[in-house]
Fold this protein.
Amino acid sequence: FSAFPVVGIFFLACGAAALNHYQERDSDFLMDRTKNRPLPSGEATPLSVLLITAFFLISGSLLLYFGSNVTTLLIGLLTFFWYNAVYTPLKKVTALAIIPGSLVGALPPIAGWTAAGGEMFDPKILIVAAFFFVWQIPHFWILLLVYGSDYAKGGYPTLTNVLTRQQLMNITFCWLLLTIAVALSFNFFGILNYFVSGIALLMLCAWIFTESVKFRKYEGSESKIYKGMFMRINVFVLLTITLLSLDKLIKLFLE
């Protein structure tokens, strides 16, 4: 096991996040959710953020180049480019920017796979990447239900301006179902090694399906149900990733 790819990808993610803060500093100043970030609050200067970005970008690239392989480096740089040069400006253009933007979350697993010597187009990692792609969309739209008016204050087009909240909840519910379907497909791609892992995954999917149905039909406090579902989808993804990791680690240990 080499820590270089892990640290390299982490550094590129830090660089992308720092550059995003620079790019969206004016909009962040207008939104309650982000007005206390380092740049809008005055705790950092634009130049310092650009220097931090350069440090992480260069350091991460060198770590991936010398500690991994060129394929992993190119995937890392593509992720950086897609987040900052495609997704970030696209958010000002369309309320559907999250769909192409979710590629940012799908690429890192592929980078880890290639760093370990795997083939980039192996069906196993592609279905894992698909899971990371799909889950971000309901994750973001649930967040939009909570902070829709705040995004509008920042100058971002939002679906809450063209759809009713119930319509957006229904669309989000459909994406939640797709997330569950992709997760269940792990059982058909040889990703899980043990029967008990498949049962655990089935139980996780049954739980989040039940919570998704409750989310769609809930008629009480809007803020409570939105924030609750936001936490549950995050917990579901975290537990699913943990399950995949433990399943693989146990197999490596037994071998």
Q: What stands out?
A: The chain has ten helices and no strands. The first helix runs from residue 4 to 23. The radius of gyration is 19 Å.
